[in-house]
Amino acid sequence: MSNDCDVIGVGGLLLHTRERADQHFRINKFGNITKVRLSVTCYISFKTSKDFHITLKIVPVLEADSDYKLKSIMSQDVEFIVFYSFKYCIKEFSIIVISALALNAVILACCYLIFYVGTHF
Q: Which of 13, 35, 36, 116 is the most buried (most CB within 10 A)?
């Protein structure tokens, strides 16, 4: 909440594709205010075990009959790119451990075979 403007959510979260979603807000600035500092906080809930990146981009949209211009609203493009990386889950970690043990068993078997062939022939 701010003392110099009202921020009203317009509609719900719009899911365009599996990779893109939009959330629209209306900012009503009070008459005696000349500048409004915009701060955006978002909470994202996801279920995944893979690494991925998120691009958060703020795009101002004006109505056709607005008294403002886009240049007066945003002085620069705002885009944040975040990469999320997850540690191994239990299933992936167990596969890695079993693979390492199997590799050690194969190496020991090859060493034994080389020793056996070298000493008996």
A: 36
pTM: 0.43
Residues 14 and 42 in one domain: yes
**Residue whose entry in the numeric block shows the structure tokens 């701010």:** 2
Tally the domains of the chain: 2
Same domain as 93, residue 58: no
Q: Mind spelling out the 3-state secondary structure of 89-118? A: CHHHHHHHHHHHHHHHHHHHHHHHHHHHHH
What band does 71 get if pLDDT is binned at 50, 70 and 90? low
Structure token digits, residue 13: 């979260």
Together in a domain, 18 and 55: yes
- Strand partners for 27: 7
Looking at the structure, tell me whether residues 80 and 93 fall in a common domain: no
What is the structure's pLDDT at 2? 56
Largest CA distance in the chain: 99
- Calpha distance 57→43 (Å, rounded): 14
